[in-house]
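can u do me a favor
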């Protein structure tokens, strides 16, 4: 069973809570609970209230937006150690997206009661949260810039290079984190385009594809594609 200390340690690893003092983390940890989701089970649905926010301890989540005609778009993939739902909680509106487990997933839920209680009595906590959220907003704006200005090939190449770097496998091996159609939706391209780009890069010898494992044979040439 996890103790308050171990929950505080988990909270300190999420970007939203980086830089918090031990006492602040302990106060938040007393308002936490755990939530286990099966694959395709939702933490919350678009249009529903959100009374806390979530850190992924194990597994993966996706945030999707549905339109009136039934179309669905993946807006973000959340992995182990990452969090989601904070902006919705602070805004006080119903969820603009649905949060669904891509695999069996374990979440740490930080209740709104704990967060707002600490905000009310600790200005330093409020300043730190604002600074950390500003950093997250900057990253989201970079994503939007990429989708607006980059071609489909550049979006896929950018994904491969980021994944290779984060996998720590010498910058040459990628293990795709989830299904290709989910990644395609996240990149705002059709699944057929995603597959075609992988095929074209493989045909030119830049990569080798074996299921979800992709070997990058020429990282400098791939990186050069992003500069066109």
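np, heres the sequence
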């Amino acid at each position: 069973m996890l103790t308050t200390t171990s929950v505080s340690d988990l909270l300190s690893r999420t970007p939203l809570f980086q830089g918090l003092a031990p006492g602040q983390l302990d106060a938040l940890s007393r308002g936490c609970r755990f939530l286990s989701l099966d694959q395709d089970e939702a933490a919350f649905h678009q249009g529903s209230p959100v009374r806390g926010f979530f850190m992924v301890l194990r597994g993966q989540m996706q945030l999707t937006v549905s339109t009136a005609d039934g179309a669905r778009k993946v807006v973000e993939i959340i992995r182990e150690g990452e969090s989601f739902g904070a902006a919705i909680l602070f805004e006080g509106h119903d969820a603009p997206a649905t949060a669904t487990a891509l695999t069996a997933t374990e979440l740490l839920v930080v209740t709104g009661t704990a967060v707002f209680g600490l905000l009310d009595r600790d200005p330093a906590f409020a300043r730190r949260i604002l600074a950390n959220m500003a950093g997250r907003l900057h990253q989201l704006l970079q994503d939007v810039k990429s989708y607006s200005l980059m071609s489909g090939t550049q979006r896929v190449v950018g994904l491969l290079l980021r994944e290779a770097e984060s996998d720590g496998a010498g910058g040459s091996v990628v293990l795709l984190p989830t299904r290709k159609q989910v990644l395609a939706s996240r990149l705002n391209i059709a699944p057929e385009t995603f597959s075609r780009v992988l095929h074209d890069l493989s045909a030119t010898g830049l990569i080798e594809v074996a299921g979800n494992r992709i070997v990058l044979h020429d990282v400098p040439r791939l990186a050069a594609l992003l500069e066109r």
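The radius of gyration is 19 Å. hope that helps!!
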